[in-house]
Design goal:
heterodimer; A: about 290 residues; alpha/beta; 7-stranded mixed beta sheet; 12 helices; 7 strands; globular; B: about 350 residues; mainly alpha
């Protein structure tokens, strides 16, 4: 399974839209696609028709539910690992854990044989533990850059953050840049795209996702744009992007982050039979997970 | 993303155009430029006029990519400072071609003083200055212009109308571009700025963005020249300005009856009570570069203009201020001979 995380510390740059519709395009190509919503706002969950009820990523990360049990079938042949607003509590709980950034990687390893591609929709906060989890697990990090004001500065700042996370994890990430919300009618957007191209060059995807009303309509209906209007320009953009992604050879040469080599020093504490909804009384060894 | 993909995203139908071009065996912009417009129109599925525009944008993009980033052009930063900043990410992909282009550029454009530039005097005829400057610029560029063969009178008229167009005056403006612009009545940068971009674009069959970009570069060029002219004039206005206290109200301490001039200018407090009609010439850029490059350049500010300083200060009586102004006006109306008779007892004594 190849894992692509969609990151940027800037909100509203199209991370969730890309996650939903790129998943739709990949599914259209016959790939088995998983979308993992790491954003506590749960917009990807809503955009794929999820209701935010039932098991979510929080339970999976806390170790109170298996990842397979939390999966939900969504429109367009996509499988979703939904999020919940309570996912924000994980940031606080992670402060009491050892290596909390590896939890998602472990969870995905359990379900890796069932999928070809996984798209991790990260929250806007790039320096949080949720994004660290996504980057730790990813094969390639897609830096989603809106072709609007502060695009280049925002992209460079995000790149800096990703590099800091990589340094803190002792790893190197394969980062690619994807331009979104491009409106070629405006000179400003065109100049910005040229500037992004001059800065990132070959690290940038050839496909640039253009701004489209169809994308908003599709998100409103809870389906990918391929379901709403497969002949639309937006669907064409994501189809081209999925083709690029299929042909992409990761520089790191790995398909999944290597298994953790460490073992906890102490035996895990017995888990509570039913996890409290607030998640405040997590055991200290909540990071310990059952290996598949 | 390569240049062809960028071009398709900017001026084509994105991935659809790119796919068609690649299927037709066109993988780079260089190959694309060799395709005839009619053939390209068939490949992409558009009209020949649109294909011609696409080819034109391809040529322009080929010239632009890799040389300089456009977001810095948008900021309007002076070329000199941009060239000096070597730690910016823009300067990373510098290659031999770029350095050659830089060395071929007009040295004045790079912010360096011309070695044989004569000292400019402020009372010189501005028209003559402009004509001489146009000659110097053309000599520095070292390129032959068709205008050079024109009679001197015509050249004078051309220079009087503004900054004449010449190749490499603006980034991307070559000899052919100059000739085409002149064909449509655009002889100078000022003409270019006054022209309506849309009309010019239609008439020349050039992309609107190209014309708008040229206008932006022209505006920046003229603005830079205006700023450098102000900087050269600065030392004449206020050669030795004492550091003013920051908390002082603007017009408060500067009274016309004091021995020091409101602006602290030596010219106003010299042996002559009024500014010399032939003030000393401004230090030429050559002199500046040789005598003291470490001396900071004086920056001109509106607060240093004497008339602005002659405003009532905070707490000053308005009637007293009006009386003071009337007194200054009466003193101003005296003849220079009277003032000389009065010795140094001028209005500022």
């Amino acid at each position: 399974m190849r894992i692509f995380s969609l990151v940027n510390q800037k909100g509203g740059c199209g991370k969730t839209t890309v996650a939903i519709n790129l998943a739709g395009a990949l599914a259209e190509r016959g790939r088995r696609v998983l979308v993992v919503d790491l954003d506590p706002q749960a917009h990807a969950t809503l955009g794929l028709g999820g209701d935010g009820e039932g098991l979510s990523l929080l339970e999976v990360l806390n170790g109170t539910a298996s990842p397979r049990a939390a999966l939900v079938a969504a429109a367009g042949g996509i499988t979703l690992l939904p999020a919940h607003a309570r996912l924000a509590e994980f940031e606080e709980a992670a402060a009491r854990m050892i290596r909390p950034e590896s939890l998602l990687c472990l969870a995905l390893q359990e379900i890796a044989p069932d999928f070809d591609d996984a798209l991790l929709d990260c929250p806007a906060r790039a320096d949080g533990v949720l994004t660290a989890n996504a980057l730790y697990a990813s094969t390639v990090a897609l830096l989603v850059v809106e072709t609007g004001a502060f695009a280049l500065q925002g992209a460079l700042k995000a790149l800096e953050l990703v590099n800091e996370i990589a340094a803190s994890q002792g790893a190197s990430f394969d980062v690619r840049v994807l331009g979104t919300l491009f409106d070629r009618r405006t000179r400003f957007a065109r100049e910005l795209l040229v500037a992004l191209h001059a800065r990132f060059g070959a690290d940038m995807f050839e496909t640039v996702i253009r701004a489209s009303v169809r994308l908003r309509e599709a998100a409103g209906r809870g389906v990918p744009v391929q379901v709403l209007d497969p002949r639309s320009r937006a669907a064409g953009d994501f189809s081209a992007l999925s083709a690029e992604l299929c042909a992409l050879v990761p520089r790191t040469g790995r398909e999944l982050a290597p298994e953790l080599e460490w073992e906890p020093a102490a035996a895990p504490l017995p888990r509570a039979p039913a996890a409290p909804r607030s998640g405040r009384s997590l055991p200290a060894s909540g990071i310990r997970r059952e290996r598949a | 993303m390569d240049d062809l993909a960028l071009l398709c995203n900017l001026y084509g139908d994105g991935p659809a155009t790119l796919k068609r071009l690649r299927e037709a065996g066109c993988g780079t912009i260089e190959v694309l430029e060799r395709i005839a417009p009619e053939e390209l129109a068939e490949i992409v599925g558009t009209t020949p006029a649109a294909a011609r525009r696409f080819l034109r944008e391809a040529r322009l993009l080929g010239e632009r990519t890799g040389t300089r980033l456009l977001e810095e052009e948008e900021t309007g930063a002076p070329l000199a400072s941009r060239e000096e900043s070597s730690d910016s990410p823009r300067d990373e992909p510098r290659d031999e071609t770029e350095r050659e282009q830089e060395s071929e550029r007009d040295p004045e454009e790079l912010g360096a003083p011309l070695p044989d530039e004569p000292a400019r005097s402020p009372w010189r005829d501005p028209l003559l200055d402009r004509v001489l400057e146009s000659w110097r610029e053309r000599d520095a560029a070292g390129e032959e212009l068709r205008v050079a063969a024109a009679p001197a009178q015509e050249l004078g008229e051309l220079a009087a109308s503004g900054t004449p167009l010449r190749p490499d005056l603006l980034d991307g403006l070559d000899l052919d571009g100059c000739a085409r612009l002149r064909r449509f009545g655009v002889d100078s940068l000022e003409d270019l700025l006054q022209a309506r971009a849309l009309d010019l674009s239609d008439a020349m069959e050039v992309g609107l963005t190209s014309i708008a970009r040229l206008q932006f570069l022209a505006r920046r060029h003229l603005e830079q020249r205006r700023i450098s002219a102000l900087e050269e004039r600065g030392p004449i206005l206020v050669p030795h300005r004492p550091p003013a206290p920051a908390a002082e109200p603007r017009g408060g301490p500067a009274t016309l009856s004091s021995s020091a001039s409101p602006s602290g200018s030596e010219l106003l407090t010299g042996p002559h009570p009024w500014p010399d009609p032939h003030p000393p010439t401004a230090p030429s850029s050559t002199a500046r570069s040789t005598t003291g490059s470490e001396a900071p350049r004086h920056k001109f500010s509106l607060a240093e203009i004497p008339v602005l300083s002659a405003s009532p200060g905070i707490g000053e009586d308005v009637e007293e201020f009006a009386r003071r102004l009337r007194g200054a006006a009466v003193t101003k109306s005296r003849s220079t001979a009277d003032l000389r008779e009065a010795g140094s007892a001028g209005p500022f004594a």
